[in-house]
Amino acid sequence: MSIVIIEDDVRVSSFLERGLRSEGFLVQTCADGKDAVDLVLQVQPAVIILDRMLPNVDGIALCTLMRAKGVLAKILILSALNEVQDRVLGLNSGADDYLGKPFAFEELLARIQVLSKRDLSSHVDNIINFGELEYDKSSLQVRRAGKVIKLTAKELQVLEFLLSQPGKVFSRERILANVWGMNTDPLTNVVDVYVRRLRRKIDDDFNAKYIQTFRGIGYSLSADALPAS
Q: According to CATH, where is 3.40.50.2300 located in the chain?
């Protein structure tokens, strides 16, 4: 599991890094709030350990900013500011847990384990897998064979509808009604256009073609197209 430590005190950061690495975690550190968001977006860790008092960007402001940018990692604020109002402020900024300094490493480790288990159960509920295709409903991110596929909001809606019942053939009319909320197509072929765009993004670069066309009927995300195991 990947952890990012955002802490400007070298002694604390080094202690945490050594201790967490010895427990088998993948750890990266950052000492400046200004650089932290870029690191987090690049690494996409499961857990972030965040100090309150950082150079350039306060930890509370940084937590709020990361949530605004769609960071889904569990955030544990670690701070010497440990009054009730401090903890409430931290949790209200988007943090999942708050631990005061000084702290026992065993307690920190236990809290990380609880957060990671909570994240795992939530993550599993929000993941749809189909062959090499993975759709994370929480982050609205689609991957195929580990490669991120960038989709527009409407393309994502079409894909999610097809994923709702893999193997089922959906008529153009039903796709139109569920995705666009219309019974008739004023553009005459809007469903075909969006399915073609979706196919180009998730199928064209791969051997197995998941989106199947049933002429005169509609479209399906077909299990028959999966590669043989």
A: 2-125
Architecture of the domain whose range is 2-125: 3-Layer(aba) Sandwich (3.40)
Predicted confidence (pLDDT) per residue in 104-136, tens digit: 999 999 999 888 776 554 455 578 888 888 888
N-term to C-term CA, the chain: 29
Cα-based angle 214, 219, 223 (whole degrees, multiple of 5): 90
Give the CATH fold of the 127-225 domain.
Answer: Arc Repressor Mutant, subunit A (1.10.10)
Lowest mean pLDDT segment, chosen from 127-131, 156-160, 171-175, 186-190 = 186-190
